[in-house]
Amino acid sequence: MGIQQIEVYHVVLNNKEPFRIATGVTTEIRNVVVKIVTDYGVIGWGESSPSQRVTGENAETVIKTLDKIAPKLIGKCPLCIERDVELMDSIVKENPAAKAAVDIALHDILGKTARKPLFMLLGGYCTEVLTDLTLSIKTPKEMAKDAQKAVKRGFKAIKVKIGIKPTEDVERIRLIREAVGNIIQLRIDANQGWTPKQAIEALNKMAKFNIQFAEQPVPAENMRGLIEVRKNSPIPIMADESVHSPEDALRLIQAEAIDFINIKLMKSGGILKGRKIADVAEAAGIPCMIGCMAESEIGIAAGAHLAAAVKNIQYADLDSNLFLKETLVKEGGTEVKNSMRTFPKQNGLGIQTLDEQLLGKPKKLYK
Ligand SMILES: [Mg+2]
Fold it and tell me: Is residue 333 a contact partner of residue 121, using CB atoms and an 8 Å limit?
């Protein structure tokens, strides 16, 4: 039982409209898709959606990293994921988004080999996952309208991107809460956009609008700032950019810097280590969310399977494919209805057919 062939594809997708967060605007997505073929006929799909700002990766560095990793994986057991991840880590130190593509494809193979949907194999805690929809930064009024549209589409939770100007950010939240009423869950993400002082002021002003948690109020490397904000904030603090690995999670938990962690497969290097972050956090009583970068349906399915499997992943922000103009997965993958991501009956990630034109020819092939 071995890995026979690895194919690497470069996929360019477009956003339906420009998506703005505190650190920049995105219009075009450049992801890398990995197909792993085994010598017993099972194939697995994986995806990398690199973020230059968060892990310093882009499609080119992912392809370069895979060029170092893939040849060494040929002949290895696809089900020995712990060992395969160890091998990847011994070849390149960082580059988690590149490794995530391989890790996700291996988990797809695991599910297909065991003939079970992946979430059932990883713990099977629930059969569907409530996801929010994220609002891109616009004027407060425009965002309030977008929030209403999201509720009309059935979303029960909304994540609001802020982190620009604190007074305007407070106005954004005020108008959005007014527009959607009190039952919709609201969470906010400043994407490192505030100073600790700005964060403390803004969060205290926003507390009355019933906010579940505030993601990454200050820059990732400013742990002291994070601790200070957490101490003085009426709204619980979630780490995103500050936590990539289980080791980061442990460090921030020990420093009492956070209340929640946002796990992203592109930061952790895939499902295996994403799970380890959730486990470290669970031992400390810190609930987790699963988030995303700009994955298409493949990466999103991977996040959804992990979230459904694991008790301590209590929140989900799995919406990136909904912002894309193109649909890479023509058949299969997860679906969203009334805020819930549901799973097909198929095994593994449940990815059935891909749009061959979007996928194109492999950029690299290893065997
Ligand atoms: Mg975030």
Answer: no
The residue type of 65 is: T
Distance (angstroms) between ligand 1 centre and the Cα of 86 equals 27
How far does the centroid of ligand 1 lie from the alpha carbon of residue 158, in Å?
A: 13
Q: 217 and 197: one domain? A: yes
Exposure string of 71-97, with b = 16+ CB inside 10 Å and e = fewer, is eebeeeebbebeebbeebbeeeeebbb
The per-residue pLDDT for range 232-256, each reduced to its tens digit, is: 999 999 999 999 999 999 999 999 9
Ranges of residues in the chain whose predicted pLDDT is under 50: none
The two three-digit tokens of residue 339, written as one number: 């805020």
- Are 188 and 169 in a shared domain? yes
Instruction: Please tell me the distance between residue 257's alpha carbon and the centre of ligand 1 in angstroms.
Output: 16
CA distances from 102 to 136, 172, 176, 265, 307 (A): 30, 39, 39, 11, 19
Q: Which amino acid is at 361?
A: K
Note the pTM of the prediction, 2 decimals.
Answer: 0.97
The catalytic residue positions are: 161, 189, 215, 240, 264
How many C-beta atoms lie closer than 10 Å to residue 251's C-beta?
A: 14
Domain that holds residue 102: 3-115+355-366
Q: Are residues 86 and 124 in the same domain?
A: no
- Read off the amino acid at residue 45: W
Residue 216 Cα to ligand 1 middle (Å)? 6
Look at residue 179 in the predicted model and tell me its pLDDT: 98
Query: Total structural domains in the chain?
Result: 2
User: Are 346 and 116 in contact, with CB atoms under 8 Å apart?
Assistant: no
The answer to whether residues 150 and 34 belong to one domain is no
C-alpha 4 to ligand 1 mean position (Å): 37
